[in-house]
Amino acid sequence: MRYTDEETNERHVFTVHFLRAEIDPASLEGVDMSEAVLQSIEIAAQRGIRKVFIDNLTFICRDAEKAVTAAELMIRLARLKKMYDLTMVVIAHTPKRDSGFPLTQNDLAGSSKLMNFFDSGIVIGLSSSDKNLRYVKQVKYRAGEKEYDYDNLILYKTVKEHGYTHFAYRGHGVEADHIKAPSFFEDLDEILRSSTCRPTGRASARLPPCWIYHPLRCSAASKRQVNSASLLNPSKPLPTHPDTPKLF
To answer: What are the pLDDT digits (tens) for 127-145?
Structure first.
């Protein structure tokens, strides 16, 4: 079990003030999920609950990618927050993304307009240097300047002590040290998969710029635009950086 020590069988016991509400799928037949959750939050607030965690947003709002639907849900959550003076934490996952790029507020699953309704926003990323290391980064802070940005991340280690799985503080770091740099071959494979061809064999559109990498480090000088037609026509070789090693 997640909160049980495998060696001693010691089980972590949460405080009695921590109440976890679970949704029974069998009881939701013919019921609007968002409406049911909103009503439950209001009932809890009327009974004295002042801190609410919603995990996760896309589960309670199946059409979160639609701006109108997502906005309606967030407006109602914001109204409950103000009415009952709640501290509300809304968790959302990221869609499939390239782990070689920094996390931003645009990586929020669903409509990008959701972030407009948040007073503040943080992201928790998985470090490429250690599978048990996580980094926390501010992506929005309405009340002032961001203190924990890409150059001042907060680092945490996932640890389990006496059956209690939690984050243990491990200092600060820079995001570039914790993201996986994509390889040239991963970029090339992605371009080939995404390129669409007409019957003539020519690419239907010019693809975005890709990076040709230095063997040890890439730089702005190594950025080159590649026309997908040159990828599909061997007579038009790919442009390369002078330092790129020859494989064949």
So the answer is: 999 999 999 999 988 888 8
CA-atom Rg of the chain in angstroms: 24
Q: Give the SS3 label for residue 171.
A: strand
- Please give the span between the terminal C-alpha atoms of the chain, in angstroms, as a whole number: 52
Report whether the peptide linkage leading into residue 227 is cis, meaning its omega lies within 30 degrees of zero: no
Q: Which residues of 42-74 are buried (b: 16+ CB within 10 A; e: fewer)?
A: bebbeeeeeebebeebbebbeebeeeebbeebb
What is the helix (H) or strand (E) element at residue 68, kind and residue range?
helix 67-84
* Count of alpha carbons within 13 angstroms of residue 174, beta-carbon side: 3
Q: Is 209 exposed, middle or buried (0-12, 13-18, 19+ CB in 10 A)?
A: exposed
Residue type, 135: Y
Has this prediction a pTM greater than 0.85? no
Residues in the chain: 248
